[in-house]
Structures are given as C-alpha cells and as structure tokens.
Amino acid sequence: MAFESAGAGELFLLGRLLFGGVLAFMGLNHFQNAGQMAPYAEAKGLPAPAASVYGSGGLLLVSGVLVILGAYPVIAAGALATFLLVSAVLMHNFWAVPDDQVQDEMTQFLKNVALAGGALALLSVAGTSWPYSVGVTLF
Questions:
Q1: For the chain, what is the largest distance between any 2 Cα atoms, rounded to a whole number of angstroms?
Q2: What keywords would UniProt list here (predicted)?
C-alpha cells in the first residue's frame, strides 16, 4: 500500500491541498477574468470562446476541489490530465507563435504538461483508499 509509512498520508494530503488548490484557484481566475481570457481563446481559434473559458474554469474549479476532498478521484484526475494536455497543445502552441511570444507560451505549455503529470500520478493511485478523504468514488 502506498500510504503505509509514517507521515505518508499527511504528505499525500498536503500534496492534494497544494495541487487541487492551485487548480481550483486557476478555475476561479477563469471566472474572474473571463473578459480578458475570451479574446485570447478566440485568437487561438476556439469555438464559443466565452463558453470555453467558463467551461474550462468550471472543470478546473470542480476537479481541484474534488482532488482536495479525495472525492471521485478517477473522474477528477482523469478530467484534469485530459484537459491540461489538450489545452497545452491547443492554447500554448509555442512552436507556432511569433518570436516575442515563444517564451511565454512555452512556459504555459510546460506548466500544463507538469500539472498533467501530477494529475496522472494521482490517477495511478485513484483505485486505492486515499488518507483523509471523504471516500466517495465511482470506481
């Protein structure tokens, strides 16, 4: 079992709080700054850019809170990993932007890929009992 050593459950909870908290905050940011984010989404060619901003904000907010709570871990981690990888490629395509935007887009691309890696790590233990969780799961 992954959480048998002393302090492992507490470290896992802290990791969930940090990871889920950042993602939930990012989701709130989508709602608070939708007016600035929608034109960026439109410039990237997303259909219904405002709806895309709100939808992605909702996914980040809800999934981040679910990670913190330890509820529906397969759904939360799977949705986050998928969204983060897709948005890295669609929204932060540093290979296709003008030179003055390459560094910013590459940073955002790498951030999304790293966060997707964290979501995949959580997904790998989603079938186990998470310490300090509400214990609600579908799988």
A1: 50
A2: Membrane, Transmembrane, Transmembrane helix
- The tens place of each residue's pLDDT in the chain, 139 residues long, gives 567 788 999 999 999 999 999 999 999 999 999 999 999 999 999 999 999 999 999 999 999 999 999 999 999 999 999 999 999 999 999 999 999 999 999 999 999 999 999 999 999 999 898 999 998 888 7
**Cα–Cα dist 10/7, whole Å:** 5
- The H or E element containing residue 25 is helix 8-32
The pTM assigned to this predicted structure is 0.93
Sign of the CA dihedral with 135 first, then 24, 119, and 53 last: positive
- Is residue 33 within 8 A of residue 84, CB to CB? The reply is no
> Alpha-carbon distance 43 to 36, whole Å?
12
Query: Tokens for 85?
Result: 């990888």
Alpha carbon distances (Å) from 59 to 4, 93, 105, 106, 109: 32, 21, 22, 23, 18
Domain boundaries, the chain: 8-124
Distance of CA 67 to the CA centre of its chain: 10
